[in-house]
Amino acid sequence: MDDQENAPEILPELSASATRLNRAKLEKVPWDHSGKHPGNRLFSGLLNLMFEFGNAAIFRHSENDPLPPVDGGVIYVATHINGLVDPMVILRIQKKRVISLGRHDLITRPFIGWWSRRFGAQPVLRRAEIEAGVVDAEFAKYINERGMLTAASCIAAGHSAVIMPEGKSHQDSRLHALRTGSPRAALAAAAIAEERNLPPPVIQTVGLHWKTHYWFRTDSYVEFGEAIEIPSVYSASDRAALASGTWVEPPREDTINLRQKMFDTLSPLTPDSPNWPTYRALKLIANMEANNSDKPLQKLSEEVRSTRDVRTGMDDTQGSQLLDVATEAAEILHQNDLYANAISPSNELRGMSNNDRLRGILGALLMMVTSPITIPANIVLSSIAKYMAEEGDEGLDSRTTYFLLAGMFSPLLFWLPLVLLSLLLLQGTALSSSDIIPGLIGLFIIMDLTYIFLRGYDFWNDFTTARRRVKLSRSEDGKKLNLLLKSINSHLGALK
Asked: Which of 11, 191, 221, 278 could cross-link 234 (Cys pair, CB 3.0–4.6 Å)?
């Protein structure tokens, strides 16, 4: 495991949106240093409901650990490889009102920004924007300190925050070097809580796991790791200044020490591998070991923990040889859009079962039956999401973000208008209060049919996955894969 000093420290490549600074909107972003949340409670509740729609749309299965109990505020920290999906899967689980910090352009964009500002999100101007000449250091300091003090005050008051401490989204399989923003905000929050005689806040580390994070309808698992106590490092006078609304920097040594503690605690909850092929190999080994023990891994959470056990045991020469073979096998699967569960309990490549064929038929029927309603209700935003994911410059992590946004906003922008239009056409008269119940029924019908359509998509996808397995098995790569699987099994036997 790397430490903070040796972790990759790569400034993000700025998207076109990140290079456009809207100073006027940034200055007008709501903020509050009293501990009162700057967002609108109604919009926060509505956004949480929309998160549920989005989560149900993009994930086939969602798991999470029980939420750790805490009296005071909480700062959730996690790695950041999946765009807006990363904070969303945390936000929808926890129960406290959330104050968030986000990239400056996400706060000022015409549509997303409007929602972000009403959610109370605080903008961040990163070093990358300063060095690229997008913003001057003085204005960045003003905006960042204002936002951090707002966040710290809210956390001290018992609210929660979701912070991605790497300061960017990336596509690496290990934790990047953490920025100092999160430990500084945490130390300030602890000082304000102490000054106001409030329960102390904590830093809660979070592991975010996906089968394959950029696949539509993948699985997700939110893991809660060790909670980190935040030390008291400010003098009495500095605590008073913070509580009165003046930003005071914490001692640098204490900031660095807390950052290192965060890195050491968070790093094991990530893939923590030199690259993705290595991590895919570890997952393959974990699945094959479980098969050999007659305990196939059924859930993503089981796979995550088993893979972690394999990772920690890969130190000897024999283990290294096993990893080399497993890497080659896992890459053949990956190149054919297959996952480790393409391997049967006997540790051979699965074929096509009758159940797979039935799923294909059922999936096609479900999609056909529901499509007259679900396609008009969802096709516009889904098409826009697909186009932006493929043509935009935000990177691979944006793919799931755009589908998330489509799932979140389709009910508001298309389901509701579709229901209202249908009622108008059926009645031929203006709508009245008596139409509320029929309107709600219409919304529930669209929602249910949409999820039935997605279930049909899942079944059809199971069938097409089986077809890819069959195609692979008949190829030279398939023959090579089965030989590699036999070799892995022999290595596993030797390691017992």
From this structure: 191
Alpha-carbon distances, residue 292 vs 125, 274, 305, 339 (angstroms): 51, 27, 17, 18
pLDDT digits (tens, 9 = 90+) for 4-51: 766 666 656 677 777 888 888 899 999 999 999 998 888 888 888 888
Cβ pair 462, 359 in contact under 8 A: yes
Q: Which residues contact 119 (CB under 8 A, 6 or more apart)?
A: 39, 40, 43, 44, 47, 98, 100
d(CA 308, CA 302): 10
CA distance 385 to 398: 10
The whole-angstrom separation of Cα 354 and Cα 125 is 55
Contact 33, 190 (CB under 8 A): no
Q: Domains in the chain, please, with CATH? A: 4-269 (3.40.1130), 276-347 (no CATH), 354-473 (no CATH)
314 Cβ partners below 8 Å, 6+ apart? 282, 320, 322, 323
Residue closest to 206 by CA, chosen among 260, 148, 257, 265: 265
Rounded to whole angstroms, the Cα distance separating 473 from 492 reads 23
Q: Which of 293, 301, 370, 288 has the alpha carbon at shortest distance from 329?
A: 288
| Cβ atoms 29, 100 nearer than 8 A | no
